[in-house]
Amino acid sequence: MTDRYPLAAAVRIYLRREPEAHYHWRFGILVGVVVAVPLIAGELAGSRSAGVTGALAAWFVALAIPPRTAVQRLLFLGRRLLVLTATSALGVLTGHHAPWTAAAIVVLALMIPVPGMTITPLITFIMATTAPHGLTASGYTGSFFLGGAAALIVLLLPVAASPVAPPFAGLRVKDPWRRLVDHVRRRSPEARYAAQAAVCICAGHLILAALHWPHAGWVLVGVLTTLRPTWDATRARVVKRSIGMVGGSALTALLLLIGAHSGYWTTVACIAVLGGLARPLRQYNYGYWPILGTPVLLLLVSLEAPLTVVDSAWRLGNNLLGAAITLLAVTFLWPHRTQRRPPRPRRADSRRSDG
Which residues contact 168 (CB under 8 A, 6 or more apart)? Predict the structure, then answer.
């Protein structure tokens, strides 16, 4: 059925809710607050760039699923904050040196299977390579840390606890490296996934930089947010994110037009409301998440470096290009059996099985 009617299959995939789907609206309210506070503080302090950087940090810290107890949230989110701050600092320092940037991308991608890493540190690294104007490396890093730390403090509140959060394994130092070595020895889907990400992101960075491709980082983020360790998970991400990005880019274009005529504080209010509505959607249906999540990120960027409707179209096109690169990667770059699309059964075989 899915082979004969690909459009219907795509719609079914898009509408499919996540395992243990849950819309945690109280957590959404907290996310809206923690993203808005740095924007307000930065504007009042006369440093909009610092406010935008702090809000980005708060947003990325809040993308994690908070564990159920306050102590676990402190350890889990604290580790996340330190890792994201470190990769952001690295991005600022290497942003204007292409060879060092490429080398850092490879290292960070290969570390994706390490607990506490995932793809988010690589995304913050990529974004930091084009850090906001007017901030030094130390200023960017400090603003990022403060914004993330403020988010961490707010997320210690009991209402932030997620009822679907996986168990937190703790912070044992030896386990991450032991687990990474084990993935490599077994040639697990996670190890292949990390290698695919390293090749795609590094090669993509070098090629797009040579072509002076507009908003090239969005292509790389498009790869990172769709590439998964298994074929089924990758296909679902490609379908859900690609369809959701259409709605998200259209909404962003509308909000950019409104923001251009209504000013800073209206945009901040839109970011807070959309952030609060969008964040819980990641655990409900990832396909709905880009519709509201995309405007949050682009509106944040537009506060420091104004964007236009054309930029919103580039965001959509670059993400679709990233999804296409992902499909090429899982097809040709060392595809694991869990990343290969199941072969279509032959008609003769079907007749034998039916008879």
Answer: 67, 72, 75, 76
Residues 155 and 78 sit within 8 Å (Cβ to Cβ): no
Distance CA 125, CA 73 (A): 23
Q: What is the pLDDT of residues 102-142, one digit of tens each?
A: 999 999 999 898 888 889 999 999 999 987 667 899 999 99
pTM for the whole thing?
A: 0.90
Q: Is the pLDDT of residue 98 over 90?
A: no
Looking up tokens 């302090």, which residue turns up?
45
| Phi, psi values for residue 168, rounded to 5° | -90, 125
Helix axes 70-94, 137-154, angle to 10 degrees: 160
Q: Give the pair of three-digit tokens for residue 244.
A: 């959701």
Name the amino acid, one letter, at 245: M
Residue type (1 letter), 84: L
CA atoms lying within 13 Å on the CB side of residue 90:
20
pLDDT (mean) for 164-183: 70
Task: Compute the distance between CA of residue 71 and CA of residue 76 in angstroms, rounded to an integer.
Answer: 8
